[in-house]
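User: Okay, second chain of the day. Same drill as before: sequence in, structure tokens out.
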Amino acid sequence: MRDVFFIVGPTATGKSELGADLAHELNAEIVSADAFQIYGGLDLLTAKPDALTLAKAPHHLIGTTPPHEEMNADKYRRAATRAFDAINSRGKLAIVIGGSGLYIKALTHGLAPLPTSDPKLRARLNAMSLDELRSQLIELDPATARKIDVKNRRRLVRALEICLLTGKPASEVVAGPGDSSLPGSPIPATGVFVFRDREELYARINQRVEAMFEKGVIEEVRASGATSTTASQMIGLREVRELLEGRMSLLQCIAQIQQATRRYAKRQLTWFRRQTNFLPINLSILSHNEAVKGVLLRAQRSARESG
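Assistant: Same drill. Structure tokens below.
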């Protein structure tokens, strides 16, 4: 059994700093579960941990994938499990830190084999409007339609593709039977779900976006090359590119990225509250040191129970 501890929660909560200090105390190593920090480059845009944070403990799966490559939950799960095996072989605990719900679920629930893309079907779905895609998904898989980001064309198309290729709702196929015979069998979901009061979290998000521009995110995006379909979903990439093309003012760009990030955080909060049983910890009512001590006790207790 793999020795893994999770720290999950929405963006801008302070997971990276908390996890780095915890890993330092435990002589553990960190495995990122962030769908965009896994890409190389665009460090400011994806809010990668700073040098001081990275120096506190070894970090894995940050900046390891070229931006032009596609990424998905199965590729992530395979890379993460290889990292877990290597970390555990050194006699160390692996601490998963991130807010990408699907990547976390791929680890804690395993993954059912999914059908590969069919070019003809994909072309037909891509030709449909968002409204048509939404309507068909509601008809074929209302459970997925309730949870999915209905403005995300890529996810709508993939969900419908799974439904049409398997003849089953995507929610049923993706969930899988949840047993150890699945490729990438589930990892015990031991850990914490960290969050902050909404007003404080939104203020932190707004401040982080402003700091991102002060540090040079415009030049970072200007210097970036081609990005894959999945990498292009990074919050802020489209907005900064529109700014560079003169189709948006600086103030509009900042405001739109702040709004998109707040909405993303809201979706993350909802997902983790509904989909996981991690111990919730409100960082708004704790100092950083208190939070580290609390999570440390939780991790040590989990280690004793698993041992």
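The chain is about 55% helix and 10% strand.

User: Thanks, on to the next one.
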